[in-house]
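Thread: "does anyone have the structure for this chain?"

Original post by V.I.:
We have the sequence but no experimental structure in hand. Need at least a predicted one for the grant figures.
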Amino acid sequence: MIRAATLLHLALLGVLVPSAWAQRIEFRGSRLREYELHPTTNSAARWLSARRPGYRHSVEFGRRVVVQTAGTNAPAFGRLTPRLRVKQQVNERTWLLEGNTAQDAVHAAARLSQEAGITLAVPTQRRRVRPHYPLAPVPNDPYFTRQYSLETFDSEAAFLPVSVDLNARAAWAFTRGENVIVGVGDDGIEKTHPDLAANYAGPNYNFLTETPSGDHVARSLYHGTAVAGLIAAVGNNRTGLTGIAPQAKLASWVIFDETDTNEPDESGFAALFGTGNQEVGVQNHSWGNADYSFVEVSVLEDLALEKAVTEGRGGRGVVLVRSAGNTRQTFTGARAGDANLDGYANDPRQVAVAAVRPDGRFASYSTPGSCVLVAAPGGDFRGGYAGLVTTDRVGFAGLNAFRDPDDPSSYDYLVGSRLFVGTSAAAPLVSGVAALVISARPELRWFEVQQILALSARHLDLSDVELGSNGAGFRVSPNTGFGIPDAGTAVRLARSWILQFAPETLRITNAEPQVIPDPLPGGIALLLRREFAVTNTLVLQHVQLRVDWSHPRGRDLQVTLTSPSGWKSSLLRPGTESEPVLGVWTFSSAHHLGETSFGTWALEILDTVTGQAGQLEEATLILGGRALIDTDHDGLEDSWEQTAFGSLSQGPAEDPDGDGWNNASEHLAGRDPTQREEAFELAVGREKDGRLRLTWPGTAQESYQVWATSGLGRPATLVTNVPGRFPEAGWRLEARNGTELYEVRRSP
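Reply from O.Q.:
Generated one for you, tokens below.
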């Protein structure tokens, strides 16, 4: 439906002027949604600007239309939309139509929205997204010794430090990512780079030009090449650096040009998520929401994502990894980013990754959110912390055009004062760990890989005021999720993992309309509270909350969801969305992993600023997890507890075998909670400086003694005491001539 606008709009300084948005149009989605169209004299334009009434940000409608029907009978498109053609039938009741101009598509969508039997008719649109990365000057250090993200090296340290590294070498003992392809949605990959060429495989595609090419489209672009190097730069080739999964292969999917404004429309992004789903095991997306406002995943993208995780990789699902964003609030009063505003990062089918500094604290730019699953090193230019060494374009193309006279290949890498910083750098490291996990255990399904990433993670910054333990005893924070994955631990978990059934979904709706109250004079807050009584028992993986609501100023709102255990997920923090909130939005939290669904859940919405009230029409709690018989409602299956302990007396946070894994993690992984599964064995390796490294399974609750002797049967001497560390403890020593035997004992 199209009609002339009759309203006047408020401009700056309170002066009323006629609106430049001359038409209004309605499309049918979950409801009729109205847009104002910007007039244009170019009737052949491929993009048409529009915005929702009352909103500042505009969208651009393209020349394609998504249509869904209530039944499976195809509409008479030839009669209803003679200027459009069917480009693709997505499923039995979803079609993608295409015209020559945006005008044709917009008018056709409006007409189809009025037809009986059509439940959705919307033109595709492109929105503002951009790569997530800032850059910072850092010290100029050698390549491999600067890869602190893979292994921390401290020439002065005698004991293994508690560090930010991903412990890559422990994973490489089992796998280096063989037989896994990682798709990189970005601005291209330099396929001839000496550190990437051997791992450049495809399938490749440019979604801007719709051609089978993964090359950069401009000399200045480098982001995708930098991401690719962190994932799968070739290892052991005496060149540059090594990726976290150095024998994984790469596919390049181009979605950005040099302007960061020319992206595909939503049908292009849907095609991106569906590319090579049988060959590609992991997708890396170091990009996302470019605004401090809600960005929805479109119908086509949602269908493509669902197909990727249900049908991809032979039905085991593609693992989707995404940067959480770089919009953290920089000072009090500044705009506050929240990853839950990004429909991509907020999607539980994707792994949202935060960034940490080299000391383990969340980076000053890293966007928080209850959807954040894990974190990885990303550097921090504001604190002067080192970024990551990685690949750049060859020669003078790309970012680094400085050539060190003592290092002729230096301008082929981001080194010296040009290092890679941001959640764009953190996400590919997690993609690489996911590739190692899949390589070690191809049978794992996508949601099991997510669980393994979370269970293998640990926190370094215990001063994070938002860090706490959920009802399953897992430490979690909206700043870093479950922490930084340990690749060695993740691969070992994968190898022994007991395969799971797909999660079930439980929905509980509270449809009672309720006012979101404005604070009383004097700033006295009034809380809207909704409760959901859950009698079904699931051990949880993801929790979502769907709200149908309205408020003129989203930045005033704070939204919290509390589980029966008392653990709170911050779904929306104040100071974020400055425009009116969407009619319907689904928040996501990954932070209830391992908790039970049973009991009373509470939604709380707080309006923090006087002046505007809102309305909550309906709220639906959506719980995803594995159904189980759990009569004591602790998230542990009765039969598992009875087999292990002979009773239901144990709780999820307890660790009866003292191996560092609590009962909740042992339950999820299918391990025996009464026996240490990893043998207390000593391994010997060599450090970068030639020192030997002794390592063994450790916990933070224990300490250890290292004893030495010159031969079997001879007296041993206590050499040193070593503090405990989970999941691995160790000691470094100088290599010596002759034979020396070492023994590690748990301290009495």
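V.I.: this helps a lot. The chain has four domains: 2-126, 131-496, 504-627, 683-746.
O.Q.: and The chain has a mean pLDDT of 88.
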